[in-house]
Amino acid sequence: LLKENTIRTFENKIISYKDFIEKVKELTEEGLDVYVGTDSQVIKEKLSIVTCVCFYKRGISKNEIFYAKRREPAKNFPTLRSRMLFEAYKSLEAALEIDPHVISELTVHLDIGSDPKRNKTAKFEKELRMLIRSQGFGCEVKPNSWASSSIADKYTKT
After folding, report:
1. Which residue among 62, 77, 94, 139 is least crowded, i.e. fewest CB within 10 A of its CB?
2. Residue 115: CB partners within 8 Å, gap ≥ 6?
C-alpha cells in the first residue's frame, strides 16, 4: 500500500518510501508508538481515501505524521460495510508493511463507533476488531481511534 503510493508528511511534503522506512525505524527506536488509521470521504462521486501512520508517545514532545492518499470511484463501495472493510484492510495492509521495521507498539485505529444508537458503523465493530487483532495488532475504535477519525479525516477533505 505505502510502497505504491506517494507518502507525505504532516506538512504535505513528499517523502520517499526508503526515507519513510528509515523514519519508522528511527522514531520507534526513540520509543514512539505507531498508530495506523484510514478514513474515506465521498467527494464528487469519488472516494477520497487516506491512510495515516502516526508516531506518538505521551510525555515525548516529538511526534510525527505521514499519510498516503488515493481516490477510487465511489460506486466501487455500494454499502457502508464494503467501505468500512476497505478502510480496515488499507490500515491492516499498511500495518503489515511497516511492522518488520517497528520496535515499539503498533495499534490500528478504526473509524467506527462502538455505540449502536449513535453510530451506523457500530455493527461492524466485532468483525473488524477481530480482523485486526487476528494479525497481532492492537485495535481502537471511536472515541479512541484518533489516527483515523481525526488525522486521516482531516486529509480526506483536502
Report:
1. 62
2. 122
Whole-angstrom distance, CA of residue 52 vs CA of residue 151: 7
Residue 139: which of 101, 112, 104 has the closest Cα?
A: 112
Residues forming a β-bridge with 109: 37, 140
Distance CA 68, CA 9 (A): 9
pLDDT tens for the chain, residues 1 to 158:
899 999 999 999 999 999 999 999 999 999 999 999 999 999 999 999 999 999 999 888 889 999 999 999 999 999 999 999 999 999 999 999 999 999 999 999 999 999 999 999 999 999 999 999 999 999 999 999 999 999 999 999 88
Find all residues with CB under 8 Å of 50, minimum gap 6, and list them.
Answer: 38, 39, 40, 67, 68, 69, 152, 153, 155, 156
Tracing cell 494479525 back to the chain, one arrives at: 135
pTM of the model as a whole = 0.95
